[in-house]
Specification:
Length: 165
């Protein structure tokens, strides 16, 4: 049982500017507040794959498997030879406004008791992912407004991804 976590924000810019930002190579370098470095492995029509190195040096591979021009994409993210989570980015048009929604399907610890997992999910995973997604989404609006790369930990540190010392 995989229970997704999602967050959505109204974008203070046009859908075109949003799409140009989130579909460009190494885009996380511009707006992701916990990104130390986002490096492209492949970024062409047939294959999109990059590396996200967080502020705490955690290194995740992102492999895009679905690409809907101007509307969003889906990808798998995780350690190179480890478990992967599914992530969907969707541009939404509602009431003449533009929104961006990010939904994460976190991988399950299949060898864990389901009851323990649900407890862990609701009291730890979900709140931490919500906080993370909120910071990433706010970072997009911040970048679109200021037109310069976001400062690290702009909206506060995150215990999973920041260099907390």
């Amino acid at each position: 049982m995989i229970i997704p976590v999602s967050n959505e924000i109204e974008i203070n810019s046009s859908a075109e500017k949003l799409w140009n930002l989130i579909s460009s190579p190494a885009h996380l370098n511009l707006f992701h507040p916990f990104c130390k470095e986002n490096k492209v492995i492949n970024w062409n029509k047939n294959e999109k794959k990059d590396v996200l190195i967080y502020l705490n040096d955690l290194k995740y591979i992102r492999e895009f498997y679905e690409w809907n021009e101007n509307y969003g994409y889906s990808l798998f993210i995780g350690e190179d030879n480890g478990e992967k989570s599914k992530v969907e980015w969707k541009v939404i048009f509602r009431n003449n406004k533009v929104f961006l929604k990010i939904k994460v399907y976190p991988y399950i610890f299949s060898n864990k008791n389901k009851l323990i997992y649900l407890f862990y999910y609701y009291f730890f995973i979900k709140p931490m992912l919500k906080k993370y997604l909120n910071s990433v989404l706010k970072g997009i609006n911040w970048y679109l407004k200021h037109k310069k790369p976001i400062p690290k930990n702009k909206f506060g540190k995150h215990s999973w991804f920041s260099n907390i010392s």
